[in-house]
Design goal:
It is a single chain. Strand 1 and strand 2 form a beta hairpin. The protein has one domain. The chain is about 55% helix and about 10% strand. It contains ten helices and eight strands. The radius of gyration is 27 Å and the shape is globular. It starts with 10 loop residues before the first helix and ends with a helix. The strands form three sheets. A three-stranded antiparallel beta sheet has the order 3-4-5. It has a three-stranded antiparallel beta sheet with strand order 6-7-8, with no helix packed on it. A two-stranded antiparallel sheet has the order 1-2.
């Protein structure tokens, strides 16, 4: 049984993207693999059987955005942002009326993500996949803008602009280098992380997923605790795994619910021939048993 946590939101609201945009900013959770999540995220623990069917290249995109950014940003370190800073400062001050109710963090992440995504698609990063470009740009910009204040909505515009422009420009001057590097390493990351996802499901009896994305963590309880602290999510990740004699695995969650998954399988027989063979086998076993019963009933000489 999986526990879906949706504080103050309904499943329908999450499904249609009616998130707390503008009020719930994403936070980097170090105990959950360094990915960015917010109070509008839908997180759950999936036990082994459901977990392994969820592990796929599409469910590891958030992890790979984090992994490849960490790897690539370390080698893309341009620091001359003089020209960019002047341009962005002028642009920011002209938008004072529209950002007076926003924090510098919100302005930074929104502008950065929009500009980065458009640039990435136009240059064919990630094969021109708009969704993947946005996923990676969103993580990259959240990481770059992480030091911006989330509570300076009432701060004067000039001060707010000075706070966010430096971070936006650091992302911009390194963007092409970082995105090219991420694109080159993305496919191998997906393959590796899908394997890790399946291994986690088997070794830990399940895994954590937020918004359908696998969280690559070594300590499930530590991640669940951080989700509880940051967003008041309540997720039970306790699971006892038993390997049965027939090769199946039984997972018992903290609430006592048990799920059993077969770890091996036999290729299915197809059509009438397979059914006939199965029937003959059963008949043969039955006949053999009847012969043994008759022999045991005969009086001994």
């Amino acid at each position: 049984m999986s526990v879906r946590t949706m504080p103050a939101l309904t499943a329908a609201a999450l499904l249609w993207g009616l998130s707390l945009s503008g009020t719930a900013h994403a936070k980097a959770l170090d105990r959950c693999g360094g990915v960015f999540l917010s109070a509008s995220s839908a997180c759950e623990f999936k036990p082994i059987q459901e977990c392994m069917t969820t592990c796929s290249v599409t469910s590891v995109e958030q992890v790979c955005a984090q992994k490849t950014f960490s790897q690539c940003s370390a080698s893309c370190t341009l620091s001359d942002v003089t020209t960019c800073t002047q341009t962005h400062t002028d642009s920011c001050t002209k938008q004072c009326d529209s950002i007076t109710t926003k924090s510098s963090h919100e302005v930074c992440t929104d502008e950065c993500t929009n500009n980065c995504s458009a640039d990435a698609v136009s240059k064919g990063k990630f094969g021109g996949d708009a969704g993947r470009c946005h996923q990676n740009c969103s993580h990259d910009c959240n990481a770059r803008c992480d030091s911006c204040s989330t509570t300076d909505q009432t701060t004067d515009c000039t001060t707010k602009c000075m706070s966010l422009v430096q971070n936006e420009c650091t992302e911009e001057v390194n963007r092409d280098c970082v995105l090219s590097c991420q694109t080159d390493n993305y496919t191998s990351c997906q393959t590796e992380t899908v394997n890790t996802c399946n291994t986690t499901c088997q070794d830990k009896g399940g895994a954590l997923f937020c918004d359908g994305q696998f969280l690559e963590v070594s300590d499930l309880q530590a991640c669940a605790d951080q989700l509880a602290t940051e967003f008041s999510f309540d997720i039970d990740v306790s699971a006892h795994v038993t390997v049965n004699g027939n090769g199946s695995v039984t997972t018992t969650n903290g609430n006592g619910t048990k799920t059993t998954a077969k770890c091996s399988f036999s290729p299915p027989t197809r059509g009438r021939t397979g059914m006939a063979l199965a029937s003959l086998t059963l008949l043969g076993l039955a006949a053999s048993r009847r012969r043994r019963d008759r022999a045991s009933d005969r009086p001994r000489q």
